[in-house]
Automatic annotation (TrEMBL):
PROSITE patterns (alphabetical): ASX_HYDROXYL, EGF_3
SUPFAM superfamilies in UniProt: EGF/Laminin (SSF57196), Fibrinogen C-terminal domain-like (SSF56496)
InterPro entries linked to this entry: D8C_UMOD/GP2/OIT3-like, EGF, EGF-like_Ca-bd_dom, EGF-type_Asp/Asn_hydroxyl_site, Fibrinogen-like_C, NELL2-like_EGF
Name of the protein this chain belongs to: EGF-like domain-containing protein
Repeat recorded as keyword: yes
NCBIfam families assigned: GGGWT_bact
Annotated source species: Pocillopora damicornis (Cauliflower coral)
Record-annotated EGF-like domain positions: 184-222
Annotated signal peptide: 1-23
Organism taxonomic ancestry: Eukaryota, Metazoa, Cnidaria, Anthozoa, Hexacorallia
Length: 349
């Protein structure tokens, strides 16, 4: 055997025993090293180590953010990285004077803690490979320094930022590429409000306000026409079409009535008659009846003619009034009966 080979064997044997003893001390592999390579652009901490020490390794193990590190040979500089070469293969490059070390044991999975947010689901998937499962992760896509919890679908690599949003109660969380936004719903224009038809709707932050239109009373969800609530009642039995005056002196005329909204109630009847009625009925000479019938509720406030009959003419005199259907009853806007002679508005059951 040539001399040169013997020297080489000795060196090889002694080197092997050193490595073996080193390995048994550690019990497990907590890192691997790659010569003349580095991960560029992910260093969050750089410091000088003591020559020949394990300072870089200890510092990486002690920092939860550390995913890998570079060692600059001869200068003894440690560069702690918050990404692994798996997460950022494009940044794993040649470097003549460096070693690259990957952290294996005790490496915290990327984006599993707020201190170590990922930039995207894709990056987490690259970093954790087979171990990457769909679930909640800490992300900071806009690199703001604030981590937000998001759900990563590892199939589609799409993040749902609305899993833990802080939008107001009435707002809607809308997912974006890098964050969520809160959409305030305009219930008024969207039509999801429950304001009454006769109310106006006003949008507010997170809600809306209903106000009854002028001429209506209520809380905005229920509005009733003012005249359905504020009216005077006509109740005397002499106003009923069944009543006939006993003498000429007893005849009554609507010469001082209203103007105002009236409702027929009690002995006077419920509504105005809608057909020509008997002459001299309802305690007057020329009784008045409603021409054109009663409106429906949805017709609102309508104009109608009231005809006052004479002995031989069902419409001897005429005036215009207003009528509204209040649901269970009617109201009439009445004023003095036409002048000349004796006329009166009548009620019927
Ligand atoms: C990760 O390292 C980069 C620099 O390489 C730094 O800008 C970033 O803030 C670090 N992220 C965290 C969460 O420390």
């Amino acid at each position: 055997m040539p001399r040169k080979n013997i020297v080489f064997m000795v060196v090889l044997i002694s080197l092997t025993s050193v490595l073996q003893s080193h390995a048994s001390q550690r019990c497990r592999i907590d890192s691997y090293s790659i010569y003349q390579m580095m991960l560029k652009g992910h260093t969050f901490k750089t410091f000088k180590a003591q020559a020949g020490s394990l300072d870089c390794r200890h510092a990486c193990l002690a920092d939860i953010r550390c995913q890998s590190y570079n060692v600059v040979m001869f200068e003894n500089l440690c560069e702690l990285n918050n990404r692994s070469k798996e997460a950022r293969p494009e940044d794993f490059i040649k470097s003549e004077n460096r070693y690259h070390f990957g952290k294996v044991s005790e490496r915290v999975p990327l984006a599993s803690i707020p201190e170590l947010p990922g930039y995207s689901c894709k990056e987490i998937k690259a970093s954790e490979q087979e171990q990457a499962v769909s679930g909640n992760y800490w992300l900071d896509p806009i690199r703001s320094g604030n981590s937000i919890l998001a759900y990563c679908d590892m199939e589609t690599e799409i993040a749902d930022y609305c899993v833990k949003h802080q939008c107001a109660e009435h707002a809607m969380c809308v997912n974006g590429d890098m964050k969520y936004t809160c959409a305030y719903i305009d219930e008024c224009t969207e039509g999801s409000h429950s304001c009454h038809n006769d109310a106006s709707c006003k949008n507010t932050a997170g809600s809306y306000v209903c106000t009854c239109n002028s001429g209506y009373l209520g809380d905005g969800f229920n509005c009733i026409p003012e005249e359905c609530q504020n009216y005077k009642s006509l109740t005397t039995k002499t106003r009923n079409t069944k009543y006939f005056a006993t003498s000429k002196e007893d005849l009554l005329c609507d010469n001082k009535l209203g103007p105002g909204w009236f409702r027929f109630q009690g002995a006077a009847g419920k509504v105005m008659p809608t057909k020509c009625i008997s002459w001299k009925s309802c305690g007057t000479l020329r009784p008045g009846w409603l021409n054109g019938g009663h409106p429906r509720m949805e017709d609102g406030k309508v104009s109608r003619k009231v005809n006052f009959r004479s002995i031989d003419n069902c419409a001897f005199k005429t005036t215009t009034i207003q009528v509204r259907n209040c649901g269970s009853f009617f109201v009439y806007y009445l004023h003095n009966a036409p002048s000349g002679g004796c006329q009166r508005y009548c009620g019927t059951d």
